[in-house]
Amino acid sequence: MEITVDDQRLDAMFAALADRTRRDIVARLSEGEATVKELAAPYAMTMQAVSQHIRVLERCGLISRGRHRQSRPCRLEPRALETAVSWMEESRRAWAERMDRLESHLARLQDGGEQ
Q1: More confident residue, 92 or 7
Q2: For position 114, what pLDDT does the model report?
């Protein structure tokens, strides 16, 4: 099975989002830009640890950092989520079809249509 760029991007994104702190950071950034200091405020961890989480999110393309005077605010990159959302929707659709087929098959069995 050939691994595509999209597969690699999905792997990195899902690995990044497997961590609760990083999911919280993404959720916070969905409300607007924030500095590392602002993102670190709710956590009992060092700025260095929060910066490391931010770097993981940057590497997979979920967030970017701009420049505003002396600060480098972080911002969410919602387009990066499109690949993951597309994959999840395709998987959901495939599983829904499988469940519909199973339901039909079980209904036929209950009605005595198949042995």
Answers
A1: 92
A2: 55
Element (H or E) spanning 98, and its range? helix 81-110
| Chain position carrying tokens 């079980």 | 106
In this structure, the chain runs to a length of 115
- Residue 25 counted as domain residue: yes
Question: First-to-last CA distance in the chain?
Answer: 37
Contact predicate 29/38, CB 8 Å: no
77 alpha carbon, distance to own chain's centre: 11
Cβ atoms of residues 26 and 14 within 8 Å: no
Rounded to two decimals, what is the model's pTM?
Answer: 0.76
Instruction: Tell me how far apart the alpha carbons of residues 69 and 35 are, in angstroms, rounded to a whole number.
Output: 12
pLDDT of residue 9: 86
Please give the residue range of the domain that contains residue 98. 5-110
* Residue written as token pair 């950092």: 65
* CATH code, domain with 16: 1.10.10.10
